[in-house]
Amino acid sequence: MSFEITVAKRLGEIDVALEMVAGDGATVLFGPSGVGKTSVLNMVAGLLRPDRGRIVVGGEMLFGTGVDVPIERRRAGYVFQEARLFPHQCVRANLTYGAAAGVDVTTVTGFLGIDDLLDRWPRSLSGGEARRVAIGRALLSDPAFLLLDEPLSSLDRARREEVMRGIEHIRDVLTLPILMVTHDPEEAERIGTRIVTMAR
Ligand SMILES: Nc1ncnc2c1ncn2[C@@H]1O[C@H](COP(=O)(O)OP(=O)(O)OP(=O)(O)O)[C@@H](O)[C@H]1O
Question: SMART domains attached here (predicted)?
Answer without folding.
Answer: AAA (SM00382)
